[in-house]
User: Fold this.
Amino acid sequence: MSWDVRRAVPIYRKFLLENKILLFFTCLLVFLCSVTLIAVYWANQDAVSEVLSEGAGDRAAARAALIAVLLVVMPGTLLIGIARVVIRKAVSPLKDLTRVADEISAGNLDPSFDFGVHVNCWEIKNCQRTDCDAYQNFSQQCWYIDGTPCEGYESRFPQKLEGCRTCDVYQAHRGDEVVQLADSFRHMANSLKASQQQLVDADDFQKRLIQNSFNGIIAANADGIVNIFNQVAEALVGIPRTEAIGHMHWHAFLDAELERAMDIPISHEPVRRVRGFAPREATIKRVDGRRIDVRLAGISLFERGIHIGKVFFFEDMREVKQLREDLIQSERLAAAGQAAAGISHSIKNIMDGFNGGVYVYRIGRKRRDEDKMTAGFGMIERNVKIISDLANDLLNFAKERRPLMALQDPRQLVEDVIAAAGPPREERISVRIVQKGPVQEVMLDRHAIHQCLSNLLDNAVGAFAVGETGHIVVEIGSAGDNVYIAVRDDGMGMSPRTIDKIRGGMYSTKGSKGTGLGLQVVQKIVKEHRGTLIIESEEGRGSTFRIEIPAGAETDQPVPPR
Assistant:
């Protein structure tokens, strides 16, 4: 404290309360003695003058002065001594309360002090309400306890104080102001103790919550030093908590590039602004240098607009990734098995056709029957074409290829496909082209799209039963920046479950006559063109297979087989 500040403090504030009272009493006593002496002198002025005139002189005056001093000083000293003892006794409780206040400020919420007499409300009121919090409570008086069920009195604290001061229990306990002040100190200490225990319990709960979380949690202060490092983080990183907390920077476990991501707003609510990043796949660094795949999220912490730290939440993804890989592998094996079964069945059907054709050819040759020989050779030719188509589908489905893109006229391409396919095997099935508005030329692989449309056209013909009358429409048009070609039939149609099956691959609605590879090839070629295959169907009302290709479609990477 500077001299100017000390000089500004009134001098009486520098004394203890005991000295102030004693000084005041001494000054009052001196004043009263002085007044008494002056009054005695004036009352006996004539007698004093007579003594002095008779020659007693200086000896009489000295004797009178001594007697006056003794009469004043001796009783005054005795009174001051008595006053000092009384004042110390009166001020002693205040000193104790000052000591108690210092102990409470220092954190001791169980200070020792004893003022007044604790009264038991249940004895004075003859109350047997054992459910009352004040019953058998020897640490706190009932008027400081919230929720006491006293009839005719407010139960809530502090509203109840005014009514409780008129109660018999309060009157039995009531002392002077020091006792009441001591009661307030005791209540304050108990309230602080309860609040402290609540904070300790809340802190313990939060620590247990963090430590026992299924996710890893790493938090750091504003300087980046780790201050929270739970058990999952300890297990994944391989560093004990005692070595990480307070010693290591979060960069030791996570990439420093995340610093920029932590400053990106992820919530713009007026009350709660959050910066950080949502869960994403990332890696966390172990002490041995290895990296572990995790799902990571991060939040920047602010208080009153000031950055106070960061917290990261992460989940071990090793088991999830392994399960994902196992699932993909099992799906591949299942698909391979399904494909092998379908292909084997198709090859068996083709070989049956071969054997049938050979048998008919041999019978015709044995009997020199040209018609049977021709019929048998035709059967062989048809099955050779079928097995050739199957081999081409397998190659197209399996190999990587880059489409040979060139500008093509969609309508001309459709006309060529229909002409190459020839008339349908059933004369009652008609095929026609419908163009919706002008259609621009498109960048595409002519041979690949020709194969797509051939497959779709063949599937449309197969949607009709033998001898059934039907119509097939190939529609061409534009849809925004895309050009579409749709093959629509009014055949038997498909259920939603059947559509899901043919999308999954290796499933054919033709039974033993199909392998399901044709549609898989169509989907692969459309994907190579960055296009979309849309399937719409309704049982009994037909199906539509619609190919949409961007008008300026380009591909720069080969599409790998599935």
Confidence is low (pLDDT under 50) at residues 1-9, 555-562. The first helix runs from residue 3 to 8.
